[in-house]
Design goal:
- The protein has about 140 residues and is mainly alpha-helical.
- The protein has two domains: about 1-60, Multidrug-efflux Transporter Regulator, Chain: A, Domain 2; about 65-135.
- The protein has five helices and three strands; from the N terminus they run βααββααα.
- It has helices at about 10-15, 20-30, 45-60, 65-75, 80-130, and strands at about 5-10, 35-40, 40-45.
- A three-stranded antiparallel beta sheet has the order 1-3-2.
- Helix 3 (about 45-60) crosses helix 4 (about 65-75) and helix 4 runs antiparallel to helix 5 (about 80-130).
- The longest helix is centred in the C-terminal third of the chain and has 47 residues, at about 80-130.
- The protein is elongated.
- The termini are far apart.
- The mean pLDDT is about 85.
- It is an enzyme of class 3 (hydrolase).
- GO terms for molecular function: dipeptidase activity; DNA binding; DNA-binding transcription factor activity.
- InterPro entries: DNA-bd_dom_put_sf (IPR009061), MerR-type_HTH_dom (IPR000551), MerR_fam (IPR047057).
């Protein structure tokens, strides 16, 4: 049986979005997408394709699956998108704050690594010149 023009197989979507079929089935198990069934075969609609694209974009932006689900559900409930846009803005702000905190943590860790490396280099240099220097 031929598939409709706006229908996609799991292999089609996996190839298009560079994800595994297993990942797509995972999102299906979580209720984020709901393909039609033809026996054991999954038939994904244009709507499923768009939802998968939104899911993957949300993951790249650092959103949780729950946040992604809420945003998608808001769009389904209110196609004008006002509530969805407000929720998306909140999620962006929360994600941005978390990423800034991670940047601060990474900066501090890098500074600590620089200090330890410098101390080790000084110790190594002192030992090669014959001095006895206690370890850092």
């Amino acid at each position: 049986m031929d598939k409709p023009q706006d229908a996609y197989s799991i292999a089609d979507l996996a190839r298009e979005f560079s994800v595994t079929p297993r990942a797509i089935r995972f999102y299906e198990d979580k209720g984020l997408i709901a393909p039609a069934r033809e026996g054991l075969r999954r038939i994904y609609s244009a709507r499923d394709r768009v939802r998968l694209k939104l899911i993957l974009r949300g993951k790249r932006l650092g959103f949780t699956l729950r946040e992604i689900q809420e945003i998608i559900d808001l769009y389904d409930a209110e196609p004008t998108g006002e509530a969805q846009l407000r929720r998306l803005i909140e999620s962006c702000q929360r994600s941005r704050a978390a990423l800034r905190q991670q940047m601060d943590d990474i900066r501090i860790t890098l500074e600590e690594l620089d200090a330890v490396e410098s101390q080790c280099s000084q110790l190594l240099h002192s030992q090669t010149e014959g001095e006895q220097v206690p370890p850092p």
